[in-house]
C-alpha cells in the first residue's frame, strides 16, 4: 500500500505516427523498428480523438495492429502508446541500479545471465556491500570485469599469480674448492622442482619452455673451518658468458655466504652457481643439506 501517488512502472513507448488509409491493419514501430506489445490490453490507441476499447475496437498480432473495420483516409490515428509489462519495471534507466536494489547473492551465485544487465545500467557502487568471499577464490570462480564498457566474466585462474615454476636444490655431501679455480657448486639433492628443470648431474637449472621472464634466484653456501678469505660466487647463465657476480668476505664468525638477484631469464636457458677463491689453501663446502647450502628460484613475472 502506498500513501500518495502510486509509483508508475512499465516500459512506456509511443509508436511512430500511423497514417490511416483504406485498410484495417497497421505495423507498429518505434524508431522505425517493429515492436510487439505484451498483449492487446497493454496498449492505448486513440482514433479520431477517441480512446479505443481493446479487443472490440482493435486487436494485435505480433507487431500488427488491426482495427475492427477498415479505416479511410478521412480517419486520424492520433497515437498508439505501448505500456510494456506493467508488472515489471522494464529496462532501468542508465546509472539507476544501486546496491540496495540487488539481493546479496546476485553476483556471488552467478545469477546474472550473459548480457542481461548492461554496464551503463549499473552505478559505481552496485557491487559494494555484497556477500564477501571468505577464502581464496577457486580457479573456476568468476569475477566481473569491464572490457571497454561491456561487463564480462573471467575465471580467477586467468588472473592469479602463482610464482611457478619454482625449485630448491641442496647439497648431499661436502665439496672441496681448490685455490684459484672457478668451480661449479655441486647442488645435487632436489627438495622442490615444480617444472622439472634441474639436472642433478650437471648441477644446472634450465628454465622450462614457456616460463621465461623475470626470475628471482637465491643461493647459500656454508664453508667449513674458520679461515678468513674473500670469495667470489656467481650466478652463471650457461652458454652466454653472462653472470651475476657476488664478492663476499667470509669471516671466522660467519661461514655462510649468500646472494639473491632478479634476472631476465629466457626459455631453455640454464643457470648454475660457481665459486672462486684465491686464499692458497683448499676450502671445503659443508654439504649438510638445505639448512647449510641451497640453490633456489622462482618465476616472478613476464
Unreliable stretches covering 5 or more consecutive residues: 107-116
Question: Would you tell me the structural class of the helices and strands?
Answer: mainly beta
CATH fold field value of the largest domain: Jelly Rolls
CATH class of the largest domain: Mainly Beta
Mean of pLDDT: 83
Specify the number of helices.
0
Shape: rod-shaped
Q: Specify the CATH architecture of the largest domain.
A: Sandwich
Helix content range = under 10%
The SSE order reads EEEEEEEEEEEEEEEEEEEEEEEE
- Span from first to last CA? 61 Å
Please describe the biggest sheet, giving its number of strands, its sense, and whether it closes into a barrel.
Answer: 6 strands, antiparallel
Please, how many domains? 3
Fraction of residues in β-strands: 35-45%
Radius of gyration: 38 Å
- Counting DSSP E segments of at least 2 residues, the number of strands comes to 24
Explain what the structure shows.
- With 302 residues, this protein is an all-beta fold.
- The protein has no helices and 24 strands.
- Strands 14, 16, 17, 19, 20 and 22 form a 6-stranded antiparallel beta sheet that branches. A 5-stranded antiparallel beta sheet has the order 15-12-24-18-21, with no helix packed on it. A 4-stranded antiparallel beta sheet has the order 1-9-5-6, with no helix packed on it.
- It starts with 12 loop residues before the first strand and ends with a strand.
- About 3% of the residues have low confidence.
Can you give me a brief rundown of this structure?
The chain is an all-beta fold and 302 residues long.
